[in-house]
Every structure is written in C-alpha cells, then in structure tokens.
Model the fold of this input.
Amino acid sequence: MWTDENRVRYDRSKLRYPSDLTDEEWALIGPLIPPAKRGGNKRTVAERDVVNGVMFILSTGCQWASLPKDLPPRSTVNDYFRRWDWDGTLDRIHHALYVLCREQAGRDASPTAAIIDSQSVKGAEKGGFTIDPPGYDGGKKIKGKKRHLLVDTQGLLLHAIVHAADIQDRDGGVLLMSTMFGLFPFLLKLYADAGYQGPKFQQGLRRACGQINLEIVKRSDLHRFVVLPKRWIVERTIGWLNRCRRLAKDWECLNRNGLAFLRWASIRLMVRKLCRNAI
Done:
C-alpha cells in the first residue's frame, strides 16, 4: 500500500534514470545472462547498461533512436533485445524470477490455479509486407493486436502470447494453453470469463491440458460494479503491466517483439517486488 511510511521503498530518484536497475535488482538478473561466446573479439559492452537501455525503452515508450547518449547505441541494445529473445535467455530470466517470487511468498514453484484473460491494444501507424498483420476486435472496436495472459493467484505472469485482435478469446485461449509445453505440470484449475464458455474452448483445453478444470466466473450484476472472484486478479496484472508506456499501444511490427516487451514488463514487476520486499 502506498503510504508515507513506505514511500522510501518506491523512491528511485537517486538513480541516473528511474528505469535503471539498482544494485540489488542487477544481482538477480546479472547471473542469468549468458557469457559471451568463445572466439572473436571480447564483449566490450556492459550487460547491465544493455538491460538499462531496454528498461528505458519499456518504461518511457520512446523510439529506439531516442535512447540517451550515455546508454549503449540503439543498434547494440536492439541486437541484444532480439538475441536474448531468440536464444531463450529472456524466458530463463523470467522463469527464474517467477520461482523466486513464489518461494518468497511461501508457495510451491508450480501453481495449481490460474486465471486467463485477454487485452486488445490499438495498433500504431505501420504497414508493409514484413509485419505481422493486425485484426479488428468488434467487441472492443479496436484495430490492432490482442495480448492473451495467463496469471497465477498472486497476479504474476505465467504465460502469454500476442496475436491479431480479430481472433476470438476461445481460439486464442486454446493457443495460449497449448503452447505452455508442460511448464506448469501441477496446474489443475483455470478461471475465465464468459468469453471462454462453450464446447470449443473446453475441447481444445482438454486436448492441450487434460488435467485442468475450467470454471467460468460470470458477471452477476450488469448495472453496478462488483468484484468478481479471481477475475479481478488478471485485470490488476494488466494494470500493473500497463504502467510501462511501451505497452500503451502496439508499436511492434512483429508479435514476437511485442511478447518480448511484455515479458520484460513482467520481469520489471517481479524484480522490483523481490527487492522491495527484502528491505
């Protein structure tokens, strides 16, 4: 809770940029970054500066060309951003921090319950043959992409995908659950809203994760605000992630890059949570 007593725990004014990593935060991420490959020239760029560059883009939402001069060049930061996504480093960092967050809360590393939901995001002005095509979400009246999220009961991101906004929730949900590849084997309960009801999603869920039971949490009162059981958790997570201005719109030409920024936003959330609770 934001109070005068714990305000100092959130203060980042002493850093060069508020998006920079503290020493405690870098101590969690640094050991998870692989060393340079053998052969060729030695790595001259500092990995911490590269991560700070990615966090600056993520937090401020600026263009790559607007990176400050005291951070590595945009080409260097962008190259490592893509490389760590392709070689699995980003996934390993995310999973390691997730396990630490679960252990800090006194819970098992693999959750038994999760909540699924989607967020439609308006696309930016872009075009050409080298982009992943957007779609139009008729329900939200948004042309762009849709982020499908799976979170645990703490609100931490388990898994996510990015696809065109014209894909229905029930179809995107099946795609989301079928791409976990057994990462959370003890998952037994899934909460969802009315967009996932019907035999199509249930059949797909049964084929992808046969042990998971689906529970649809429906809105009980259409004329006033009611906190729905479990569903508010994923909505809160979306609000947490949207504090990163890079996620305000779909700026990325490729869904893969949009998903990478989403994972970096989750890493930002978890690493600050770990270090703040350790004070």
Notes: The chain has a mean pLDDT of 91. The beta strands are 113-122, 135-137, 142-152, 157-164, 189-192, 213-216. The chain has nine helices and six strands. Residues 47 and 215 are 43 Å apart (CA to CA).
